[in-house]
Amino acid sequence: MEVYLIRHTAVLAPGLCYGHTDVPLADTFAAEVARLRPRLPEPPYRVVSSPAQRCVALAQAIAPGLPLTVDERLREMHFGTWENRPWTEIPPAETTPWMADYVTLAPPAGETFGAVQQRAAAFLTELAAAPREEPTLVFTHGGTIRALVCHCLEIPLRNAFQLQIDYASVTQLRLQHGRWQLLALTSNH
Q1: pLDDT (tens digit per residue) in 60-99
Q2: What residue spans of 63-141 are helical by DSSP H?
């Protein structure tokens, strides 16, 4: 079973804290889609997306006319009261402890990165329980992809941000003999 984790394309949200917030796509969308297509398998494939519009738009551009399953567990981290605020306006008294331990600490009214991994891993476990021959394209977010790679490779979650996950990048996983393998982690270039 092969799974392609595809991060959404670039967005227009400079300096903004966003996770669950829908933010506009950058003007580079069409060019990023064109660069992304050759790095993906030919249909048939299953298509699953985070409900965020930046992911749904990419899924529809890559797989027009194919059935699209939207799964809430693929969302980016929820930043609570920090959502849709410039990072520079969030008090350091709130961000400093969180940045030191984002795995177990949550932003006010938000979720921990550990919770992101739990829900994303539950999605992947469910996907693996009903394997198909065709690959699955999963359109999601940088944080979610990092959490899944750490889960699959048993990397400590505190090391997740050592993984560079570019916009419009592809991370390819294969489930073989009950274990996940990382086949590729590519940039958008």
Answers
A1: 999 999 999 999 999 999 999 999 999 999 999 999 999 9
A2: 92-100, 113-129
Which domains are present in the chain? Answer: 28-170 (3.40.50.1240)
Question: For residues 3 and 146, what is the distance between their CA atoms, to the nearest angstrom?
Answer: 14
CA distance 147 to 163: 10
Rounded to two decimals, what is the model's pTM? 0.97
Q: Which residues lie closer than 8 Å to 134 by C-beta, 6 or more apart?
A: 43, 44, 45, 46
CA–CA dist 97, 31 (Å, integer): 39
**The pLDDT of residue 186 is above 70:** yes
Cα 171 from Cα 189, distance rounded (Å): 14
**189 pLDDT band (50/70/90 cuts)?**
low
